[in-house]
């Protein structure tokens, strides 16, 4: 898809019996749509969830270049572009395609239709 992706914010829902620290509930699987950017706050952290070609990815929602919110960026196939200065990241690796920056990745898991993110 080309163009700016819509972004949603899902407030943290508190502890979930399906996850125990360091794992925190992030979102229901059905709230994460293909090609969309979803801002969540598991464990009080600013996290970006996205799904591309059926695979889920979890990153910090803050660009390492200028601390811009990544959920306001654009996702095209496997490239996430920051809105502020055009830094492009490969969502399969978190590596910046412009320079040596790295987008922090979070481990995630799916249990009973709920996405958990590991916060350490």
UniProtKB/TrEMBL annotation:
It holds the Pfam family Rieske. Residues 1-22 are annotated as: Disordered. It comes from the Archaea. Keywords: 2Fe-2S, Iron, Iron-sulfur, Metal-binding. Its cofactor is [2Fe-2S] cluster. Residues 1-12 have a biased composition (Basic and acidic residues). InterPro entries: Rieske_2Fe-2S, Rieske_2Fe-2S_sf. One of its GO terms (molecular function) is metal ion binding. Residues 24-117 form the Rieske domain. This is Rieske domain-containing protein. It comes from Methanosarcina acetivorans (strain ATCC 35395 / DSM 2834 / JCM 12185 / C2A).
């Amino acid at each position: 898809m080309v163009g700016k992706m819509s972004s949603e914010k899902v407030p943290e829902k508190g502890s979930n019996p399906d996850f125990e620290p360091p794992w925190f509930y992030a979102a229901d699987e059905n709230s994460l749509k293909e090609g969309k950017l979803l801002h969540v706050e598991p464990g009080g952290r600013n996290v970006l969830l996205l799904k591309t070609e059926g695979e889920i990815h979890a990153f910090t929602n803050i660009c390492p270049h200028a601390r811009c919110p990544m959920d306001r960026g654009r996702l095209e196939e496997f490239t996430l572009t920051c809105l502020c200065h055009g830094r492009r990241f490969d969502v399969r690796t978190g590596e910046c395609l412009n320079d040596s920056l790295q987008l922090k990745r979070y481990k995630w898991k799916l249990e009973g239709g709920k996405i958990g993110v590991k916060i350490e």
